[in-house]
Design a protein that fits this description.
By secondary structure, the protein is α/β, with parallel strands linked by helices. The chain has one domain: P-loop containing nucleotide triphosphate hydrolases (Rossmann fold), CATH 3.40.50.300. The protein is built from nine helices and ten strands. The strands form two sheets. The protein has a six-stranded mixed sheet with strand order 6-7-8-3-9-10, with helices on both faces. A four-stranded antiparallel sheet has the order 2-1-4-5, with helices on one face. Helix 3 packs across helix 4, helix 3 packs parallel to helix 5 and helix 5 packs parallel to helix 6. The radius of gyration is 18 Å and the shape is globular. The structure holds adenosine-5'-diphosphate and magnesium ion. The site of magnesium ion has 3 residues, from helix 1.
Length: 241
Amino acid sequence: MLEIIELTKKFGEVKAVNGISFQVNEGEIFGLLGENGAGKTTTLRMLATMLQPTSGTAILGGYDLIREPEKVRSRIGILFGGESGLYDRLTAAENIAYFGRLNNMDEGKLKERIRELAKVFDMEEYIDRRAGKFSKGMKQKVAFARSIVHNPDIMLFDEPTSGLDVSAIRNVHEFILDCKAQGKTIVLSSHTMSEVEKLCDRIGIIHKGNLVAQGTIAELLEQHSCGSMEEVFVKLVGEKL
Ligand SMILES: Nc1ncnc2c1ncn2[C@@H]1O[C@H](COP(=O)(O)OP(=O)(O)O)[C@@H](O)[C@H]1O
Ligand SMILES: [Mg+2]
């Protein structure tokens, strides 16, 4: 379970995130939908304990973000869009192990877990090869494995498909749906309407740091008397996505 309570981040005079609150249940995907600059990454970076909130907090897996950031950190998996961020000189296994150690996994467990992940993601052939020369698809699998090496029950995805080609996008969507099937609690940010409509159980529309609406697609359509999510978005934000 994830509960976000009046979470706020100011950068100087800029209120990047302005007192947003929402809840996400186990096995549910909550989509944060918004334009560039809406406050999605700032929200997810706060939840990931990478950025200190100005005020407000969140409870992740029973732990308070402000009071117990290390406990929170150990319960969450992160997959942020953009570069995969693998170390070229390390093997796939070493890249994954590096993240396991950051999460204080013990060496025995880590070894076993990497073997398991190599099997799950069909990486056994290249698990001990250096990542530098991997194809995009191979790197993507290593990044997936790395994000769940410590078996987190909460997953944070920040625009995980931005800049990817069609088959890579499909892989990400499958991975997210697998996480959901395993009962993980998921927050996904996106500026792509179709992605959010396809994957999310509930959607929050974020605009200039404010959560201007939240609910299931059916609820949002009814609340705003609209026939499509695009109409809802234009009504609330005044722009087409
Ligand atoms: N480190 C920072 N310093 C100053 N302003 C920032 C910083 N990070 C984000 N912002 C500002 O906060 C707002 C929200 O940004 P961001 O969370 O990155 O939006 P999104 O991910 O939805 O595109 C923007 O106005 C952005 O310019
Ligand atoms: Mg962003």
